[in-house]
Amino acid sequence: MTRRPAVAIAAAALLVASPAVAQDVTVTVNTEAEGPHLSRHLFGQFAEHLGEGIYGGVWVGQDSTIPNVRGIRTDVVEALRHIRVPNVRYPGGCFADEYHWRDGVGPDRRTTVNANWGGALEPNTFGTNEFYDFIDQIGAEAFISVNVGSGTIQEAADWMAYMTADEQSSAGQERAANGHPEQYEVRFLGIGNESWGCGGNMRPEHYVDLLKRHARFDRNYNAAQTGERTMERVAVGPSDADTRYTEAVMAAWAGRDWSWSIEGLSLHSYTVPQWPPSLPSTEFSEDDYALILSTTLDMDRRIRLHSEIMDRYDPEREVALVVDEWGVWLAEDPGTQQGFLQQQNSLRDGILAALNFNIFARHGDRVRGANIAQMVNVLQALILTDGPRMVLTPTYYVHELYLPMQDATLVPVEFDAGEYVRGALTLPGVDAIAFRDTTGTLHVALVNLDPREEREIAIELGDRSVSSAHGRVMTGANVNSINTFDDPDAVTLQPISGRVSGGQVTVQLPAKSVAVLALQ
Predict the structure, then answer these.
(1) What percent of the chain clears pLDDT 90, i.e. is strictly above it?
(2) pLDDT 10s digits, 33-75
(3) For residues 446 and 109, what is the distance between their CA atoms, to the nearest angstrom?
C-alpha cells in the first residue's frame, strides 16, 4: 500500500452518550428506476497466512479440544455460513508471492519462515486441500492468488492443474492420492499481489509481460473440459490513487489478441490516515473517529479516478474493478505479537464498513467484487478468537445487516446528507442507498455518522405505498464500544421500525448507527 505523510491529531475526550436533537433528512427513492446489479462478491473475505488469521482463527487441528471438523473450528464455520460468505481470497496478501504450494500438500509438509509477518514459523499444515475443505464447509467459492513475485509460471500452472485437472492427468492423480479425487473449482484467479510493492517492486510494463503469460498458461482445466468460462482472472491493479498500473494493464487489455485476457483489475485501498498505522483501535477520541471516517470516504474518489481510466479503454465495462483489499488499518493491539496485525474492532469500524458497502453499491456497474482485510483475527476482522473463545465484531454485524444486498439491484436515491462537523473536518451527516433484493423486496440502508445526534429520516417513495417498514439497527453506547470475550454483546443488532403513511416512511435513526429496513 502507498505510504502517506503523518497527520497531526488533536487529543479529545472519549465520547459518551448525550441527549440528541433530531435533524430531518429526506431520502427520495426513485422506485421506477433501476440501477446496476450488486454482486454478492462485494462481500468477499480475505484469509492470509498472517498472525492468527489461519492458525487459531480457522485451523486448530483434528486433535484439538476446540470443536472442529477435520481440524477446522466449528464456531467460526457456523458464523461465516450465517453471513453467506461468497468467496475467500487465499493464501495472501504479501504471503502469496512467497508461497510455494507444494509445501502445503501431501503427508510431508515443509516448515518455512513467514518473513513478511513477524518471522513466524509456517508449518504448512493448512494448505490447498484444507483450504478447500474450509470453504466447502462455509459454502464459499475460491479466490486463489498465485505466486508471481518469487514463483515461476510453471509453478502457478502446475498448481492450477493440481486443483482443476481430472484424474486422467498426473496432477489429478496426485490430488486424488491426497484425498480429493474430485476437481476443485477456482472462481477467481488473482495473478499476483501488489506487484508494485511486496509482490516484486515491478515496473508496470514488466508486470504486464508476466500477466500475459500467466493469463495464458495458468489454465482452468474444468473450463477446458466443459467449455464454460466460470473462472475470472484478476490482474494486479492500483494502490490507492496511483494510476500507473491502471493505465498499463488496461492499455494492454485493450490491445490484446485472442491468446489472453482478464476479467478483473484489483484495487488495494486501506483506511489509514498516516503511515505507519498508529491510531488506536480502542479508547480513541472523537477526533480520531472523525478522521478515520473522513479518510474512508476517499474510497469513492479513488474508485472514480480508476473507473475513468478504465472507461477509456473499456467503455462497455467488461473488466470489473475488484477492491480485494480494503478496511481500516490501525495500530497493533498492545501486548500482541509484532507483525501479527491484530487490532480490536469497534462500533466506528462497523460504521466504516457500511460506508464502504454503500460506496461499492453506487459503483456497482464497475465494482463487482471486494474482499475485506481480513476475516479472522487480522486487521478489520469479522471474528476474533482466543483459544476456545470466539466473539463477533461490529464489522461482522454489518455484514449480517447487509445480507439482502447480495445479488440485489440498486435503486437510485436522492438526499441532502447534512453535515457532521468536528474541528476542521466536515463530513456528511448521513448516508443512504436503496436496493431490491432477489425476492423483489425494497430495502433502504441508512448510516448516521453523527456520534451525538439522532436523525429523523423521511423516506419518500412517490406513488408507491407500503404497509410496513421493519429492519434492524446497529449502535452502541459509544463510538469506541467493542465486543469482548467477556462482554460479547456490547454492539449488536436490534429491531427498528418506521412509521408508515402511504408513500412515506419516517424512522428515528440513532446517533452513530447503521440500519437496514425492508419496506413492504
Answers:
(1) 93
(2) 999 999 999 999 999 999 999 999 999 999 999 999 999 999 9
(3) 49
Task: Report CA Rg, the chain.
Answer: 23
Q: Compute CA distances 403 → 100, 472, 488, 517, whole Å.
A: 35, 12, 21, 12
The residues with which 432 forms a beta bridge, in sequence order, are 446
Question: 248 lies in a domain?
Answer: yes
3-state secondary structure of 205: helix
406 contact partners, CB below 8 Å, separation of at least 6: 38, 40, 42, 43, 84, 86, 438
Catalytic residue among 325, 400, 453, 454: 325
Listing DSSP states for 386-429 in one string gives: ETTEEEE-HHHHHHHHTGGGTTEEEE-EEE---EEEETTEEEES
The C-alpha atoms of residue 392 and residue 382 are separated, in whole angstroms, by 6
Summarised one tens digit per residue, pLDDT across range 136-165 is 999 999 999 999 999 999 999 999 999 999
- 79-133 pLDDT per residue, tens: 999 999 999 999 999 999 999 999 999 999 999 999 999 999 999 999 999 999 9
Q: Report how many domains make up the chain.
A: 2
Residue 240 and residue 154 in one domain: yes
Per the domain annotation, does 18 fall within a domain? no
Query: Is residue 12 over pLDDT 80?
Result: no
194 is catalytic: yes
Kindly state whether residues 437 and 404 are assigned to the same domain. no
206 pLDDT more than 60: yes
Structural domain containing residue 469: 23-29+413-519
pLDDT recorded at residue 387: 97
Residues 335 and 474 in one domain: no
| C-alpha distance from residue 271 to each of 267, 325, 407, 487 (Å) | 13, 10, 26, 27
Which of 383, 408, 433 is a domain's end point?
408
pLDDT of residue 230: 83
Residue where a domain stops, chosen among 408, 432, 466: 408
CATH number at residue 445: 2.60.40.1180
Question: Beta strands of 61-114 (E only): which ranges?
Answer: 68-69, 72-73, 87-90, 112-114
Asked if 272 and 247 touch (Cβ cutoff 8 Å), the reply is no
Instruction: Compute CA 152 distance to the chain's CA centroid, rounded to the nearest angstrom.
Output: 28
DSSP string, 301-355: HHHHHHHHHHHHH-TT--SEEEEEEEEE--PPPTTSPTTS-----BHHHHHHHHH
The grid coordinates of residue 321 equal 474493478
Amino acid at 475: T
Catalytic annotation, pick one of 52, 122, 130, 194: 194
Residue type, 256: R
The answer to whether residues 432 and 450 belong to one domain is yes
Any domain includes 138: yes
Same domain membership, residue 418 and residue 404: no
Residue 325 known to be catalytic: yes
